[in-house]
Amino acid sequence: MVAAAAVERSDSGDRVPVRDNWKRAEAEALYGLPFADLMIQAQGIHRENFDPNHVETASLLSIKTGGCSEDCGYCSQSAHYDTGLKATRLMDYADVVATAQRAKDAGATRFCMAAAWRSPKDRDLDSVCDMVRAVKDLGMETCVTLGMLTSTQAAQLADAGLDFYNHNVDTSPDFYSKIITTRTLQDRIDTLAHVREAGIKVCCGGIIGMGERIEDRLGMLVLLANLPNHPESVPINLWNEVKGVPVNDVAERPDPIALVRLIATARIMMPTSVVRLSAGRQYMSDELQALCFLAGANSIFIGDVLLTTKNPQVERDAHLLNRLGIRSGLA
Ligand code: SAM
Ligand code: DTB
Ligand code: SF4
């Protein structure tokens, strides 16, 4: 029943079949399994491909905040909505490097630099490439998220040594147009293709809790799992509340068990991808996060803020991971 469409290498070097032909009905069947059956399957796959007692720690920095021309209905940084956020210019090189050093000292192994752009201007891209080189020299993995890229721009970032590019599909193909109108899902898929062609690893996921149905959440997983290659990193963001954006009127925080089921389903469908329990951990109990790690989540953002919204305190994360016996940059 399960056809192997491609083969990828897991962390342990084993060859594992990786499918790119998922049907939504199959995702629904997995998601709807009795909880214990879903969890044991996800845990088995997690253990085949990763150390289950390790969680990756990434740190985020908004290097250019607000004033964005896109209309993403969830985002504090869109110029289309009055969110009370002050727009800034691109940060200075020295401040970015100093922040990366502090993040490293605090236990982050990856440093993700985010800019509120529809797409970068060539002059700005040169500056970001310098930042990437400097952060790499600190011995950290690098990730940037700058909006849409041409293939030339992706090649420039690859030359600078960039490890990961984050560009999310955000939601299901069916729900997408209710959330964003200024760029299409196909625009995003084109950028992901440019990133892949340039040899940069892909970080791509989305957001839940924006008023979508469970079918949309699974439709998003099917979209991600059927990309030509599975993204190496899959961030699952729970919408972090922002006043003044359209999503605020329709948002519904997902049932915690539904979140665990979604993580487990992602783990099964994308066995070799790192699944990040991304934004929204500020709303989660320690017990819920522990269940998400058991379901196969193996990355978090650390630091008291994400880009413009809150994240749990580093001390709370260190305490949680310690109690679970999970190794990370923090513990
Ligand atoms: N401007 C670039 C872009 O959109 O490609 C990069 C930055 S953007 C903030 C990166 C991602 O953060 C978005 O695609 C979205 O998935 C996520 N995000 C933004 N606001 C969020 C919120 N309030 N809660 C959860 N995730 C959010
Ligand atoms: C991703 O998927 N989540 C991060 C990162 N990629 C850039 C961003 C989360 C942003 C949360 C809202 C904010 O802090 O503004
Ligand atoms: Fe701009 Fe990115 Fe926010 Fe969309 S998610 S409004 S592109 S910063």
Protein described:
This protein is an alpha/beta fold. The chain has ten helices and eleven strands. The protein has helices spanning 24-31, 35-49, 93-105, 122-137, 151-159, 185-197, 214-225, 256-269, 286-295, 314-324, and strands at residues 6-9, 15-18, 56-64, 110-115, 141-145, 164-166, 201-203, 206-208, 233-238, 274-277, 299-302. The protein has a nine-stranded parallel β-sheet with strand order 7-6-5-4-3-11-10-9-8. α5 crosses α6 (185-197) and α7 (214-225) runs parallel beside α8. The radius of gyration is 19 Å and the shape is globular. It starts with 5 loop residues before the first strand and ends in a 7-residue tail after the last helix. The model is unreliable at 1-7 (pLDDT under 50). It binds S-adenosylmethionine (SAM), 6-(5-methyl-2-OXO-imidazolidin-4-yl)-hexanoic acid and iron/sulfur cluster. The site of iron/sulfur cluster has 8 residues, from loops.
